[in-house]
Specification:
single chain; mainly alpha; 14 helices; 0% strand
Length: 261
């Protein structure tokens, strides 16, 4: 198994927390809130509202504009935001630019897909390498950034497979991160993908218990993904449809449901 390490992360080597690029307390609060809503709970509509509130409070917040761009379904808006982000990027710190570069690439990919532009495999490989390298550098310096780390593990999954992603999740996350809803649900799907169905089911139960019976879209998405790996397609569709019913803007759930057709 290939384990993607980050090197030493001792406490005395950890810098002050990451500054995402705004001093506005409203912008900062809704930036953090939006990450939690979309990653932990799959509440895409609430997350979009939070990111838009952040950028309304601070229009010069480059990372906030990036996150609006990534979640927007309006290509014209995404194009305008790309121009704005590119101008704001010049004033960003080196660490902020690590993320901005990833998010700009993601927005460009969305636009290309919507316009029907086919991207050569070589350019796709360059984009994935950028995302992997920038995420690794960022997470190495800021291991407390729960959701950037979560997306880094998703990148490792897409490139190296579920076993590497699962090993990296175990190695890279601290005890508090391991019990965040995102990590519980994602670990369940990774275990299911490699055939550890008992562990996957156990993690889903832990996730359910931690949500105090207020089940959010991502719980049902994770359950649908696990049942997909079980080859229980009817149940997988049932739970994915529940995720979409809870949030009709849940793009990942919609894509997964369409993959069955």
């Amino acid at each position: 198994m290939l384990l993607i390490g980050l090197g030493s992360c001792k406490k005395n080597q950890t810098p002050p927390g990451f500054n995402p690029g705004t001093e506005n307390p409203i912008a900062l609060h809704h930036y953090r809130l939006g990450w939690m809503q979309i990653m932990d709970y799959g509440e895409w509509t609430k997350a979009e509202n939070s990111f838009r509130t952040a950028t309304k409070a601070d229009p010069n917040f480059a990372l906030g504009n990036c996150l609006v761009g990534r979640i927007s379904t309006n290509m014209a808006e995404r194009k305008r935001l790309l121009e704005k982000i590119t101008a704001q990027e010049k004033n960003a710190t080196k660490d902020q630019r690590l993320l901005i570069e990833i998010y700009k690439s993601s927005i460009i990919r969305m636009n290309n897909r919507e316009m029907g532009i086919q991207i050569p495999d070589t350019l796709k490989a360059v984009r994935y390498l950028l995302a992997e390298n920038n995420s690794k550098k960022f997470v190495q310096k800021y291991p407390e950034e729960d959701y950037v780390k979560a997306e880094y593990i998703e990148i490792l999954h897409s490139k190296y497979g579920p076993e590497t992603a699962l090993d990296s999740l175990e190695f890279l996350t601290n005890s508090l991160q391991k019990v965040l809803p995102f990590y519980l649900g994602y670990a369940a799907t990774l275990h299911a993908e490699i055939g550890n169905y008992g562990e996957a089911s156990l993690l889903l139960q832990v996730l359910k218990n931690r949500q105090n019976d207020t089940l959010r879209p991502n719980y049902y998405l994770s359950k649908g993904q696990v049942y997909k790996e079980f080859d229980s397609i009817a149940l997988a569709k049932k739970y994915i449809k529940k995720a979409i019913a809870l949030d009709t803007n849940h793009l990942i759930a919609k894509r997964l449901l369409n993959s069955f057709h």
